[in-house]
Amino acid sequence: MNKDRFRKLLLQQRQEILEVLESGKSAAGTVKLDQTSVGRLSRMDALQSQAMLQEATRRREQSLRGINESLRKIESGDYGFCEQCGEEIAEKRLQFNPAVLYCIDCSSKLEQG
Ligand SMILES: [Zn+2]
After folding, report:
1. DSSP letters of 83-109?
2. Structure-model confidence comparison of residues 71 and 112, the more confident one
3. Domain range summary for the chain, segments of one domain joined by +
4. Rounded CA gap, 88 and 103, in Å?
């Protein structure tokens, strides 16, 4: 497995997310400021888009945690192993999402609850 390649991908993804999170913060600030000056209907729109923004931010922060954890594992040599069962994660799966922490079996089990 080419860990340098995955590290590069992860750093790239982290950079992208951090940039989006930064721009999201300023957008959320704008919504807040506008609330005093806009009518009721557009304020509801603003609140709705703020809620959507918060949800998107929450998801990005979640993937950021996965990325940071994966980067940490690359350094410690644990990268590519499932956090649940310790089995090797298929390289194809890592190529699709380098920040994935579980193998396909555990991931589907965890999703089912
Ligand atoms: Zn597993």
Report:
1. TTT-PBPPHHHHHH-TT--S-HHHHHH
2. 71
3. 3-112
4. 7
Nearby residues of 54 by Cβ (< 8 Å), 6 or more positions away: 28
Span from the CA of 87 to the centroid of ligand 1 (angstroms): 6
The answer, as to whether pTM is greater than 0.85, is no
Please say if the pLDDT value at position 34 is more than 80.
no
Superfamily of domain 3-112: DksA, coiled-coil domain (1.20.120.910)
Query: Is residue 91 helix, strand or coil?
Result: helix
Q: CA 91, CA 9: separation in Å to the nearest integer?
A: 14
pLDDT digits (tens, 9 = 90+) for 36-92: 555 667 888 888 988 998 899 999 999 999 999 999 999 999 999 999 999 999 999
* Span from the CA of 108 to the centroid of ligand 1 (angstroms): 10
Whole-number Å distance, alpha carbon 111 to ligand 1 midpoint, is 13
| 90 C-alpha to ligand 1 centroid (Å) | 10
